[in-house]
Amino acid sequence: MTWTWWMTLLVIFAVLVLIGCIPVGVDARYSADGVFLTAKLGPFRLQLLPQKPKKKPQKRKPQQKQPKKTPAKAEPQEKKPNPLLSGGVDGLMQLLDLAFDTLGDLRRKLRVKELTLYVLIGGADDPAKAAMGYGRAWAAIGAITPSLERLFVIKKRDIRPALDYTISNTQIDAHLVTTITIGRSLALALRAGIRFLKILNERKKAV
């Protein structure tokens, strides 16, 4: 069987589809031990927080400084107006509309694989106050949960407070894992980029 041009295009298309299906995401955790943040690209993971200690650079021998030449003074040039700031209030509203629209698309495309939040309320100092805080925490969870379910696709969710009369402080343990495919993120970035370039082009013509 001879290899034809359309077979080459088919292979390129299949490779692009496979790349677009690769998930990227963030794994974030907060607890008494600190903040941990990891970026994920398919099977690969990159630790962002806490940062690993860097190797100390080797000391180099000091070099003799050469006399600096005084640069010739350049003639002052007229500052061109920034096209992003030339639209006034209407232009600012255009940029805000673009930002909110992009965030709305992101909310529908982002997947939350895990969302856990444990709030341990200490009541050793004031048990009555801790009990009231425990009740308010459950009320807040009941109000927030429907909004979260409406905005995001959450596979695993566990949000709950707890009382502990043996401690005096409040402890928080939170874990968030989000994913989005490369194809969806590129499509979202391309759409927002095209709209942004249109706004920028209109501003340049108006200046």
Uncertain segments of ≥5 residues (pLDDT<50)?
A: none
Question: Which range best describes the helical content: under 10%, 10-25%, 25-40%, 40-55%, 55-70% or over 70%?
Answer: 40-55%
Q: Note the gap between the termini.
A: 60 Å
* Oligomerization: single chain
Number of helices: 4
Classification by helices and strands: alpha/beta
How would the global form be characterised?
extended
Mean pLDDT: 81
Description:
- The chain is of the alpha/beta class.
- It is 43% helix and 27% strand.
- It contains 4 helices and 7 strands; from the N terminus they run H-E-E-E-H-E-H-E-E-E-H.
- Strands 1, 2, 3, 4, 5, 6 and 7 form a 7-stranded mixed sheet that branches.
- Helix 2 runs antiparallel to helix 4.
- The termini are far apart.
- The model has no long low-confidence stretch (mean pLDDT 81).
Topology at a glance:
Layout: H1 5-20, E1 23-31, E2 34-41, E3 44-49, H2 88-109, E4 111-122, H3 127-151, E5 153-154, E6 157-164, E7 171-181, H4 182-206
Parallel strand pairs: 4-5, 4-6
Antiparallel strand pairs: 1-2, 1-7, 2-3, 4-7
Short description:
With 207 residues, the chain is α/β, with parallel strands linked by helices.
List its salient traits:
single chain; 207 residues; alpha/beta; 7-stranded mixed β-sheet; 43% helix; 27% strand; extended
